[in-house]
Amino acid sequence: MRLADDEKAMLDGAEGPAVAAAMDLLVRYGEALGAERLCDIRNVAGTMTQPSPVKAKLVREGGWNKAFSVLNLDSDDDVEIPPMRVPTCQLQQGFGEDALGVAPYPPGMIELQADAESFYGAHGVNILATCTPYQVGNLPVRGEHCAWMESSAVVYCNSVLGARTNCEGTASTGAASLTGKIPCWGNHLPENRHGTHLIESAVPVDGFLDWGMFGYFVGDVVQENRPVVTGDLRRPDLADLKHFGAATASSGGVEIYHIPGITPEAATLEAAFGGRAIPEKIVYGERERRAVYQRLNDQGESADVDFILLGCPHASLDQIARAARALDGKKLNPGTELWMMTPRALRTVADRNGYTEIIHKAGGRLLTDSCPAMSKSAPEGTRVFATDSAKQAHYLPAILGIEAWYGTLEDCVEAAVTGTWRGELK
Ligand code: F3S
């Protein structure tokens, strides 16, 4: 890999041992990938504060410098960590203090995380604590090179914002935050961003449920390729695209998609394919739509619902407002719990708008920082859960061994209030 002068200097230790270890990691990583060079970045989204038993042990042995060295720099040396060189934010993490007494999640992990937030916050990591950093002020511009983790965030970053990132890991984002560099390969290169598959919807894709199901179909069909989607698509909003992308990255491994006339790198169908031949279309019709719904509900047997999960990816203010309207004046069934996940910054606004009070009065909880899949934690005794998220319906049955129902926000709220799942595809 060709290194620029500033990169060689970092590697040679001109900026201290932590930066040298970070550059060494990036060179090893880039060479393994066949990258020819590094690119300059100014936007990192990683998981420095995420608690775990391994991290707790490292902190006991050598403090937070040691934990960062081992986990974020892949280095056995215990080096002092300097401030982050480029803007860096924390993605989702474990449950925070607001989950104490609500989620059966170890208080020791909450304390460890609070400690991590102090350390990394002082080193310049912005503790956004969400899988949707783009909802709370971290918005790279079109064409900007980034180093992000979290599949649902990566696909949003590439597709909706037109910024450029691969799906990075704990170590590469750690190294990127101290150097402002990342291997220049994959989605960073324009020729790797054009569409490979054309999927046309013959049925209306309108609203959160349908964008999630369509995404689940598309991801399953293209796996790790780059879909261009067209057809009877009603104009999506932020929540629809967030759900669509997260679903494509759950049933498949999509990191970028294009919607001609909507996403920034696809002004036209031809542009979405970079001027190359347009492949034969794959059609998503009523039969396929019903099959996806069936598949997302395959894990549901009992209609007695213990738990409702909303806000995956983390809910927008508009989604919180809709949930509050649906729950206003109602009470949850005594045996059923409802959690809605959102970034802390949006929770603050929801508090000011009175949405939180409405949700809590009904017996639900508006929680931050994490989610049941990430923290492997649902209300004690949960056997059956329901959600409006294709991603959570995909993962949570395997993670927690519980049954799942998938439907609309309204289906979920009705199940929360009655304790019974009655969702069906209209
Ligand atoms: Fe976010 Fe958890 Fe869903 S991290 S994307 S709410 S699985």
TrEMBL record:
Pfam families noted in UniProt: AcnX
Keyword Iron set for record: yes
Keyword vocabulary terms for this entry: Iron, Lyase
Domain of life: Bacteria
Protein name as annotated: Phosphomevalonate dehydratase large subunit-like domain-containing protein
Keyword Iron: yes
Residue ranges occupied by any Phosphomevalonate dehydratase large subunit-like domain in the UniProt entry: 1-414
Molecular function as annotated in GO: lyase activity
